C-alpha cells in the first residue's frame, strides 16, 4: 500500500506554492504599476503580457496528464520554478529596458512572460498532481487549503515587503529586490520537495495512452465538465480587477508605487483572513456547506466592488485600503470553498486521473485569469477615453465585475451540491 503524505510533507509542498505566489505577484502588481503609471503606457499592454503568461498555461492539462502517466514529478516542480524565476527577473529587466529602447524591452518582456507561463504551468500542475495522488482522500481538501493559504501568505508578504523596500524607487533597487525574491524561490523549492516523492512512492506508472484520449475521458464526466465551466466564470470575475486596481489607486487616489504595491499585499492579506475564517467555521464549528460559503463569498465580493467604485468619487483620503482588504476577505471565502470542492472532485470518476482533472481546472482558471485581466485592462483604457474622469471609467469596470460575481453565485446553486458539507471535506484525517 502506498504511503501517503504526512502533514509535514503537505506543509513543505505548501512552501512551493508560497514561492509561486511570491514570484508571480511581482509581475501582476509591481511591474504592472510601473508600466502604467511611471512609463505612462496603456493598461492593455501589461494586460496583454499577463494574458500571454496565462494563455500558455492552457498546456496545464498536458502537464497533469504527464504527471498521471509518466515521468518524475519532482523534476518538473523544480525545473518549472527555475524557468519561472528566470522569467520573473527578465520581466523586471524588460520594464527597465523599455524606458530607453521600447521595442527591445517589449521583446524581452514577451520572452519573460512566456517563460513565466511555462514555469507556473509545469511546476504548479505537477505539484497539485503530487498532492492529489499522494494525499489520503480524507486529507485532500485540507491539504489544498493549507497549500493555498501558504501561497496567499507568500503573495501578501512579498507584496507588502517589496512595497516597503521599493520606496524611494530606482531601477537598480528594483532589480536587486526581484533577484533576491526569485533566487530565494528556487532554493526554497528545491529544499522543500527534496525526497518527498521517493518516500511516499508516488511516482506514476507508465501508461501508453495519447493525451487527446485521456482528456476526452475526463471531459465526458459531467461533474468535471460543469465544474470547469463554473471555475471559468467565477475566476473571470476574480481576476478582472487584478491589472487595474493599482493603477486606479495611483491615478485616482494618488498612491505612490510603494503604496500601491502594499495595497496588493493588503488585498491578499484579506484573502488569507477569509480563508482562515471559513476553515475555522467549517471544520471547528461545522457551519454551512461548501456551496453556501462560495455563494456568500461571491456576493460579498460584489458588494465590496461596489464600495470601491463609490470611494472613487471621494478620491485621495478615502479608505481604499480598508475596502480592498474587504474585497480580499470575501474573495478568500469563495476561493477556499471552491478549493475544497475541487480536491474532493479530483479523486472522483476514472481512477489515476487526478493530475488531468487538476490540469483541466487549472487551465480553466488560467484562461479566465488571462481573459479577465485583459478584458478589465482594455475596458479601463476604452472607458477612460469616454468618461470625463478616471474614477468613473475604473468604476464601471468594477461594477461589471460585481455583476459577474453575482452570476457566479447563481451558477454555484446549480453546479455545487448542497449535501457536500465542509466538515466532511476539510477535517483532517487521522
Task: Walk me through the structure.
By secondary structure, the protein is mostly helical. It has one domain (7-426): Up-down Bundle (Growth Hormone, Chain: A), CATH 1.20.1250. It has 17 helices and no strands. Helix 6 (140-165) runs antiparallel to helix 12. The radius of gyration is 21 Å and the shape is globular. The two termini are 17 Å apart.
Describe the secondary-structure layout:
Elements: H1 7-38, H2 44-56, H3 60-69, H4 73-98, H5 102-134, H6 140-165, H7 171-193, H8 196-200, H9 211-219, H10 222-239, H11 245-253, H12 257-283, H13 290-311, H14 320-346, H15 354-386, H16 390-415, H17 422-426
Helix pairs in contact: 1-2, 1-4, 1-5, 1-6, 1-7, 1-11, 1-12, 2-5, 2-15, 3-5, 3-15, 4-5, 4-7, 5-15, 6-12, 6-14, 10-14, 10-15, 10-16, 11-12, 12-14, 13-14, 13-16, 14-15, 15-16
Amino acid at each position: 500500500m502506498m504511503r501517503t503524505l504526512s502533514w509535514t510533507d503537505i506543509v513543505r509542498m505548501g512552501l512551493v506554492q508560497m514561492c509561486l505566489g511570491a514570484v508571480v505577484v511581482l509581475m501582476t502588481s509591481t511591474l504592472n504599476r510601473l508600466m502604467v503609471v511611471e512609463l505612462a503606457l496603456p493598461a492593455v499592454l501589461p494586460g496583454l503580457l499577463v494574458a500571454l503568461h496565462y494563455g500558455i498555461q492552457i498546456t496545464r492539462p498536458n502537464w497533469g496528464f504527464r504527471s498521471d502517466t509518466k515521468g518524475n514529478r519532482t523534476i518538473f516542480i523544480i525545473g518549472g520554478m527555475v524557468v519561472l524565476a528566470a522569467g520573473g527577473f527578465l520581466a523586471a529587466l524588460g520594464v527597465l529596458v523599455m524606458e530607453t529602447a521600447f521595442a527591445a524591452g517589449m521583446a524581452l518582456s514577451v520572452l519573460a512572460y512566456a517563460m513565466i507561463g511555462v514555469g507556473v504551468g509545469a511546476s504548479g500542475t505537477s505539484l497539485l498532481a503530487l498532492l492529489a495522488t499522494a494525499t489520503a482522500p480524507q486529507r485532500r481538501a485540507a491539504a489544498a487549503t493549507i497549500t493555498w493559504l501558504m501561497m496567499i501568505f507568500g503573495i501578501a508578504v512579498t507584496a507588502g515587503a517589496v512595497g516597503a523596500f521599493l520606496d524611494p524607487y530606482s531601477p537598480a533597487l528594483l532589480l536587486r529586490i526581484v533577484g533576491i525574491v526569485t533566487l530565494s524561490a528556487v532554493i526554497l523549492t528545491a529544499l522543500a520537495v527534496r525526497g518527498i516523492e521517493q518516500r511516499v512512492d508516488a511516482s506514476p506508472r507508465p501508461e501508453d495512452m495519447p493525451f487527446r484520449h485521456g482528456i476526452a475521458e475526463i471531459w465526458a464526466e459531467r461533474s468535471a465538465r460543469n465544474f470547469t465551466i463554473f471555475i471559468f466564470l467565477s475566476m473571470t470575475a476574480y481576476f478582472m480587477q487584478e491589472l487595474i486596481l493599482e493603477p486606479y489607486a495611483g491615478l485616482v487616489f494618488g498612491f505612490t508605487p510603494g503604496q500601491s504595491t502594499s495595497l496588493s499585499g493588503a488585498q491578499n492579506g484579506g484573502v488569507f483572513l477569509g480563508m482562515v475564517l471559513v476553515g475555522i467555521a467549517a471544520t471547528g464549528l461545522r457551519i454551512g456547506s461548501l456551496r453556501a460559503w462560495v455563494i456568500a463569498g461571491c456576493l460579498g465580493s460584489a458588494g465590496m466592488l461596489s464600495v470601491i467604485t463609490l470611494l472613487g468619487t471621494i478620491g485621495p483620503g478615502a479608505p481604499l485600503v480598508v475596502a480592498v482588504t474587504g474585497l480580499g476577505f470575501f474573495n478568500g471565502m469563495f476561493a477556499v470553498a471552491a478549493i475544497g470542492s475541487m480536491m474532493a472532485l479530483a479523486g472522483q470518476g476514472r481512477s489515476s486521473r487526478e493530475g488531468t482533472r487538476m490540469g483541466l481546472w487549472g487551465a480553466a482558471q488560467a484562461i479566465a485569469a488571462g481573459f479577465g485581466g485583459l478584458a478589465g485592462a482594455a475596458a479601463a483604457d476604452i472607458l477612460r477615453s469616454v468618461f470625463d474622469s478616471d474614477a468613473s471609467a475604473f468604476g464601471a469596470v468594477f461594477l461589471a465585475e460585481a455583476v459577474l460575481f453575482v452570476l457566479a453565485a447563481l451558477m454555484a446553486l446549480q453546479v455545487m451540491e448542497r449535501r457536500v458539507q465542509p466538515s466532511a471535506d476539510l477535517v483532517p484525517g487521522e
